[in-house]
Amino acid sequence: MTQLKSIQETEEEITDEFSFFDNWQDKYEYLIELGKKLNDYPESERNDDNKVKGCQSSVWLTTTGSNGTIDFKADSDSTIVKGLIALLVRVLSGRTPDEILNAKLDFIDKIGLKQHLAQTRANGLAAMIKQMKMYALAYKAKQQN
User: Is 55 noted as a catalytic residue in this protein?
Assistant: First the structure.
């Protein structure tokens, strides 16, 4: 079994990948490619309970927990947003609740996402992060009981 990279190492890897592209058109295309690589999301999970509130696009997010870590599954009906959630899943899946709660997610600024996203998408990105951290908080509370 391969050792999971730290959140910081994964963020640096993403920052390096995006640094290869000279312009935002290419970065958006790369984001779309990342979204296409997300694991298939079950149709049965595409419901209001799993929908991320605060996203203009539809984003579905579910978790499974094992051995003290959380794995995220996600999908979106928007190609760019699907790429955004793919990045978050890549950074935060397989982590402990504390790792997720303490993740600063600096890569978002480092690759210039905040400056290049429309306000509605930036709000959606914040909502996705908030939802992932809420899942971590709930999972942590459940572990303590």
Answer: yes
CATH number of the domain that residue 85 is part of: 3.90.1010.10
In a domain, 23, yes or no: yes
Domain that residue 28 falls in: 7-144
Q: How many domains would you assign to the chain?
A: 1
Of 14, 55, 92, 113, which residue is the catalytic one? 55
Output the pTM of the full model: 0.94
Which segments of 2-145 does DSSP mark as H helices, in order? 7-19, 24-36, 79-92, 97-102, 107-110, 113-116, 119-144
Per-residue pLDDT of the chain (145 residues; tens, 9 = 90+): 456 799 999 999 999 999 999 999 999 999 999 999 998 899 999 999 999 998 889 999 999 988 899 999 999 999 999 999 999 999 999 999 999 999 999 999 999 988 888 888 899 999 999 999 999 999 999 887 7
